[in-house]
Amino acid sequence: QVQLVESGGGLVQPGGSLRLSCAASRNIFSANGMGWYRQAPGKPRELVATISSLGNTIYADSVKGRFTISRDNAKNTVYLQMNSLKPEDTAVYYCHVTEYWGQGTQVTVSS
User: Fold this and answer.
1) pLDDT tens for each residue of 31-87
2) Which one-letter DSSP state was computed for residue 3?
3) Please, which pLDDT band fits residue 7 given cuts at 50, 70 and 90?
4) List of E strands, 26-109
């Protein structure tokens, strides 16, 4: 069993930045790719970014150039740096690896 705990969400003004963290209860990221997903009210969950075990990254078109996914295997932690945030980025953000999901962290972009 693996617990994933997200943190770093909050309320930010448009154009602002946040950094989300996803900490795993044991070393699972180094051997597996993982992803950040988000779900806005009334919408399906969507992929935001992924990072492979080799460090290769993929981003949704809507966040390319603004978000950066990274990992620190020594800390069993994956990050999502979010810059130039827009109101449409408002959602609950989840991290996911193999069959495990975190509980989510709310990101609200509003003036």
Assistant:
1) 889 999 999 999 999 999 999 989 999 999 999 999 999 999 889 999 999 999 999
2) -
3) very high
4) 34-39, 46-51, 57-59, 67-72, 77-82, 91-97, 100-101, 105-109
**CA 71 from centre of chain:** 11
Structure tokens at 50: 């992924």
3 state SS of 22? strand
Length of the chain: 111
The answer to whether the CB of 90 falls within 8 A of the CB of 108 is yes
Rounded CA separation 111/100 (Å): 34
